[in-house]
Amino acid sequence: MKALEVRSISKMFPGNLANDNISFSVEKGEIFAIVGENGAGKSTLMNIIYGIYTPSGGDLLVNENEVKIRSVEDAIKLRMGMVHQEFMLIPRFTVTQNIVIGDEPHKGIFFDYGRAVREVRELSERVSLTVDATALAGDLPVGVQQRIEILKVLRRGAEILIFDEPTAVLTPEETVELFVTMRKLQAEGKTILFISHKLKEVMEIADRIAVLRRGKLQGIVNKKDTNEEELARMMVGRNVVLEIPKVDVEVGAVAFACHDLHVRNKRGYEAVKGMSLEVHGGEIVGIAGVQGNGQDELVNAMIGFSHPVSGSMELNGKNMRMVTTAQLRKEGMSYITEDRGRRGLVMPYTVRENSVMGQHLGRPFSKGIRMDYDKVGEFAEGKVKEYDIRPGDVYDTAGSLSGGNQQKLILARELSLPHNFLIASQPTRGLDVGATEFVYRKLLEEKKAGKAILLISLELSEILGLSDRILVMFEGRIVGETTPDKTTEEALGLLMLGVGIDKKVQS
Amino acid sequence: MSIIQINLTIAQMLDYTMPILFAALCGVLSESAGVVNIGLDGIMRFGAFFGLLGAFFSHSPWIGLLFGIAIGCLVGALHAFITIRWNGDQTVSGVAINVIAVGLMTYLLEYVFSTTGYSPQIQNYFGAQAYRVHLPFLAKIPLLGAFSNLSFMIWFGFICTVLMHVLLYHTVLGLRIRTCGENPKAATTLGINVFRIRWFAVIVGAALAGIGGATLSISSFSGFSDSMPNGVGFIGLAAMIFGKWTPFGALGAALLFGTGQIVQSIIAVTGIAPKLAPGLTLILPYVLTLAVLAGFVGKSIAPAADGLPYYKEQR
User: Fold this and answer.
1) In 10 A of CB A136, how many CB atoms?
2) Tag placement on chain A: N or C end, fewer CB within 10 Å?
């Protein structure tokens, strides 16, 4: 039986056809993947199916009956549930409160919290997804937060589950766990729609795969009849190099060095507990680690956002421990951020303005207090061409660009600054195949040009593919150093979780 | 000071506290749902004038109170219409309401009563002996004696605090209100109508601000003064923040600010500090407000989506 059928669905946003005449059907008990690059229209399509957006045209059928889904309430009544890309959790509420909102156990108008807790515990036991029903959602790791999301939709009796890029925030171990859960749900007869742009995962979990490109359905394939390369080609519309080529460069002098660095986090706890590392010219040093093990604080200290409590930090032989970000940049530091919205760009500003930020003071972009916008414009036009930033109008705001193009804009700016040390902090987070490939190419070009590069990433394939040396970070310390040819994803994954580390080293 | 004097001082302190408390409760409810309402000072001014108007013509403070509630709802609906229906800027809408309230009430005062500065005094107000809540068994107990003879509005303030606490933390509706203030998108994905909840919270909140205004003109005082509410609405906002957006926190903060007011009037009346310029003591409650906010704001966390308009189809 067809659990869900989509017939000629279109969705028009102002100036953008996000979904163009899309039709497919999903069998009951099937894991159906929808892949596509960022901005291909996957999330829009899911939001239509789930009643958050109203389609501009087309029909939806659930269990072979035509339905109108005008609101999320309608979707929930039709036994659909969605696990969103950004979790729909309220950090200040307990796990139980988060799970029951919208369908609360109650006595009259009063919320029956005690019964809610019992119901959540029963449910979590029945589907064996372990959660602490009374913990605050905000205190839990992302893997557990996702479990809360899944429990939330199961409690509402969902038969069709939509997972919108569920692995984007998970560690490799958590991803494995999620897939086990998904298989179990499938075995219970649930229908699953799995949205992703990670082809490896899609090939592992899906039965059938639909590929979207620029709002259009490119085709639907059976997993057993396809492979990653074919999917990538369908997604991007051309051949993509998923393998990262090896580039050998002679290693130069030490560009950046820190010794016994201690850094406190915002709440005043020591998050970096004595790190020492060196990055040489022509070398990519990768830092692997599960999110929240001190990487953010390390980067903050390195870019001058916070000052280390103790330890030394040198850039090109000069002491840089208590200096400002401006001084670090002057000395030759560039920084590609993972957080484009908050750190990389000023979203309401134009491409033109963003392209010179940081070098806008002084010639050639300003004279005295006056900005020379002709020069800025010329520069921006050049960069837009060189980096193929689309749609290519320098008067567009940064916020109107897609994630990939935003990242290209950041690269364009940071790599055009005079620098010999580059910090790349999760440089491909949230990017699709095409944009990721672009970032890799640029990083390797930098390496060829003899720059020193520190790569901080949660993606092990990226760390293994790009780095010359790999440092594993766990609880604010380096717990292992290796090279890509001497290790595997599995071995790194265990180190990242602190498995097999000598207790003496830790204490 | 004698026991009687102490009791009177406490009662007067509560008279100062309640308008601040109602304003703070308005803020707590509205902002818990994610809508900032800095227009509540203006709504209090509406409430103060219309409360007096109702009481004046009907000779009953109860009708005055209903007038205060009605005008509060009405102005609240305006704020909701601008900020929820049309996603207008919440600060701009609030400021506009404050500005309108200043001019319109001055005009109406002259138009209705043909006076400037003060409305005629009324006999039937909640502060009058006939309208007080008499609890003679408390009169003999030290300190609690102050509670033996209070205006109905003071008890109503305490009741509203408890009701608000129950609403926000023990009812289904309260959980949903707080969800809308923390993460409206999450609320939508759970099938909650964010717009409806926000309308409710803004209007009921504004009704409380209207009550707060009426408390000034028909309970704490027996008439409308053109300077009302004299910044009480803003002190109420401060009390809301200091009270960490919770009803009981707001009560505690309002009591503190009320104490500041009474200390100021004691200094002024007794001439303890004759060297000070007479106007200078008047700023004491406001200095206290500033000091408290500067010291505590950092530790007090607003609802995550407070003040943000909600667009359902935002990309």
Assistant:
1) 15
2) C
Prediction ipTM score: 0.84
Tokens of B16: 């100062």
The alpha-carbon gap from A366 to the nearest alpha carbon of chain B, in Å, equals: 35
Q: Tell me, yes or no, if the pTM score tops 0.95.
A: no
In contact, A370 and A362? CB cutoff 8 Å: no
d(CA A450, CA A251): 8
Q: Which of B170, B191, B312 sits opposite A111 (nearest CB)?
A: B170
Which residue in the set A72, A76, A88 is minimally distant from B183, CB to CB?
Answer: A88
Domain boundary among A236, A262, A277: A236
- Residue A20, domain member (yes or no): yes
Closest CA relative to residue A101, chosen from B193, B185, B168, B191: B191
Q: Chain B contacts of A73, Cβ < 8 Å? A: 191
Q: Cβ distance A234 to A36 under 8 Å?
A: no
Say which CATH number the domain at A482 has.
3.40.50.300
- Provide the domain count of chain A: 2
CB contact under 8 A, A76 and B179: no
Residues of A with Cβ-Cβ distance to B189 under 8 angstroms:
50, 52, 72, 82, 84, 88
**What are the tokens at A286?**
């990768």
- The C-alpha atoms of residue A24 and residue A42 are separated, in whole angstroms, by 13
Count of structural domains, chain B:
1
Render pLDDT for A357-411 as a digit per residue (tens, 0 to 9): 888 887 788 888 888 899 999 999 999 999 988 778 899 888 888 778 899 999 9
- Same-domain check for residues A268 and A144: no
Structural domain span for residue B212: 17-233
A259 and A227: one domain? no
- From the list A450, A455, A383, the residue with the least C-alpha distance to A412 is A383
Q: How far is B301 from chain A (nearest CA, A)?
A: 11
Enter the tokens of residue B253.
Answer: 């903060």
Q: Is residue B106 part of a domain?
A: yes
